[in-house]
Amino acid sequence: MTSIKQVSIQTLQDMKSAGDRIAMLTAYDFFMAQTLDEGGVEILLVGDTVGMAVGGHSTTIPVRLDQIVYHAEMVARGASRAMVVGDLPFLTYQVTTEDAVQNAGKLMQAGKVHAVKLEGGRSMVPIVKSILRAGIPVMGHLGLTPQSVYRFGGWKVQGRDAVSAQQVRDAALALQDAGCFAIVLEAIPADLARDVSQSLDIPTIGIGAGPHCDGQVLVTPDMLGVTGFTARYIKHYAQLRTVIHDAVRQYVADVKSGSYPTEQHAY
Fold this sequence. Notes:
With about 270 residues, the chain is an alpha/beta fold. The protein is about 45% helix and about 15% strand.
């Protein structure tokens, strides 16, 4: 892996041009951000998935901007190499352009992120352009956009039919033309993700979108087997929930038996 001091938009563009895949994972705290950064991840996403993976919510909709700012500021302190991208939560950018710019600015200024991510297609073009005019880089998000889960009628794969697939293609080109530096493609057929990725000059980051995107992203607690969440697109690289359970049970047993703490643990 080539040594990169700081991942930038140009880094990602160069990686797409060279055919080098981009690794992206979510991060919500300093220590995990530091660990992922040291592991070579190019992009750390402070996602509104924090509401589900950490907060126990069933969707991302309850997550507030101040919560993303809080987690982003910790992640930014832990990242010395990776680009930090922060999600704009539900209703922080969809109501007015002025709100979108102010909230994106707050996330960058107080949360110390390098860029923001927002969900939606062609209707988001004016919002994207306005945020960019404020000097804030924007990552797009198409396909299954979690903030619209109730409109979709659940967590369903998008773009299966010809009409909706073409809408995804058109939206991707529109977001690119508006100035997005990358686009997340979530839960769409692999062939559609390949078509979109090949049609764009900017990188695509897939999640549940097959192997043909320019990069991949997963929710880190899911990938590490902490949450217990399973889905067809997830590969579990560890089973930390089991490791943690075993450690806790051993701790409880030691405390109750009196074998911890001992004199060697005292001052």
